[in-house]
């Protein structure tokens, strides 16, 4: 690339680029810089102002260079985030770094007062880069809701206001922009997203930035700012700043790669620069911001690679030019990173890569197909043909030759007389193991790191011991905070599944759906587009809730009550804004919605013995019109727990055209564990509903085209299994967000029957449990050969007669999968766990649970769920059954300690017949539903005693059924327990949302064994008295049977 002589800053940035790009230890580098600064600061005296200023400038310059690289590494919205986690700084480390820097500036007022450039340039540039990364980060902690992120940004906004208070006087444009960013982010964390074109087309550092992509050419840049200048000016300015950063980065990457191809990058960058400066001239900036300084900030960025750019920035002539400090800081960072690479063997990349390659080659030599069975040791054998070919142990297995029947592999194997070499077809009689290869594998396999697990766990919020304190509600929250948080927090985000209507009052519609009406989508196959408009998926997890009752009663034009500081010029809610147009579009095209009403709850169960009959076994006649006893629950609780009715008549209308029995008319219910979606489905039709809205909204109708056996749904994908009479099964995975994506289909060749199904939270795998203790993993987004794990493979080679995999459940953090089986001979329950990326499994031997067989009412396992340990609490496994003697139990896998969950208050007895159970997203609560339909919340799980309280009543059950489901969901930034059930006889479904409020939110101590008055902290529930004592039993001792629990 021919061009002018590069500047000193350009050379430093190029060196830093080479050392920082695509590193997997960014967190450690940032923490090391912060720790080194803290140690240096110890010896800075109060009178040595220059030394303190030099330290702060060095830290800001080095952190800014890191966050600039991080901004360029963020993936586009339509890219799989998991591939980039290893190269991204964690959200928690990034945010704490910003808080650390702001706190340092606030406390250093005495020594930093005179240095205006430190605040107006270096601090502002660092904040712009870091806040941009935080706003666009694709992996905010999974346990943090939108409200939690608002509170964290509110802390930053408060600290920045302290900086303004401690350093009064005029401030630079960049620093004022930082304050405006934190102001909008603490109101809505998703308000500063990229324009749609940039969000989906911007490249990242995993590919070459040159030649400039179409989204960085003048025509696309001009479209960022409309000609009339309307829209959120801050979103437009930040998008132009992103464009400038990518254009400059392309030249730096070109030099760092020592590229020699002619790309005309200099002239292309100049044209993009001119387009950016022209767009800045069109931008409508509020009067308190200087337009000259705004242009000067981006001009200075372009001067790094285009020295002929006009320089408009002001220099502080009262003191020395501080660019020398910045150059020294970048030199020091490069030197330190180079030393770090030497110490860690070039970030361990070469060593780890070589180890992985050696292990992989051994595995491929053992089985050239690449299908390596976990927990199986590979082996290489030399046969006595003329060329002494090497044959893998898996290949010998394929030819029905068993090299060894025990764990100690035999070094010499006698082959049958008819055996021939797999390569030259010569007769062979002996196979001798090459033991050196096996020994190399045994030594290197433990050294191969699980990089995928490390990358995911690094983005969890549990890496710090202390959690941030809750912000004070006085001072920095604007008057319009509550209204925005409840009513308009989704104004800046596209809809993931279809239209929702948070900004207006939901109009009641008919109580039933007419199949002939235009609002009913009809029968839609997985390949056909949805009846409802669907947009692109989101990277950030957003709530799908509607407004609360108070907010729904207000007209949608309450935006004029917002804080004037938040309203831009022109306001984002003007008639020409995209927000207003979308609200208007939603109002005009609202589909008909069912009106919720309170109804008596009835039960419907059906017996069945065939595999084609769904699991509706019963031991007594179902009462008609019986609901759970809710007399002990207060009216406040009953009002907060909304019971919403939906008509399922269209779901059963299809059955009239098919001559099938009762099982095909049974309605199954499934609630997603990672979103607000619900499935109401029969063997012939699947309805996808969004239960976050009030009332629930139908999002999609899918026609299975055969008999549906199992179904599950996540945030983006629907997975279901269809089968035929000859037990030929097919798994189909449908993308609910992008209907143009083809359906992923797997034809399952074996005759094993499917028993359970689950989809992980990242939607990478669909896992199905089969008979004979078999689990198979299917890729959700690409059709690849599924992986099979036989849970009893270490015990015997043939698993025929082994128990079925009754349950499959992923943990709330998505890093663990738990499967359970129950022996039909002994009643022993066994659990097996996988850790991300789910390549290997192990039995949790300490969690074995023996439950007697041949009881009068035995519907088997109902749940086996996993809670990972965090914040000093132990890992827990909860096992529940629908039996007479299988008491719900919590088990610690580390030591086998177990605690029974039971109550002694008879009228609110938990019992042993449990329909379903789930841990809360935080892991602090456990919720279960028993046969009476009572919903119990269990807290203080690691304490003795723990609190068990009944929080709601739903539908009384006579047997474990598939027409009832329960899940934790986050709706409008609040945690809810959502229960849903259906009645086939009435063609009606019900959804009940139970708000769950923790004591820590209200400052009430969480003391075990003490029951608090619900009115003192806002959650009015029934507390069981006296306190429940935990019954700890020996791990090998059978639990006692409760007498009198059987319902006649």
UniProtKB/TrEMBL annotation:
Residues 349-444 form the DUF7101 domain. Signal peptide: none annotated. Residues 7-339 form the DUF7100 domain. Residues 632-995 form the DUF7099 domain. It comes from the Eukaryota. This is WD40 repeat protein. It comes from Apiosordaria backusii.
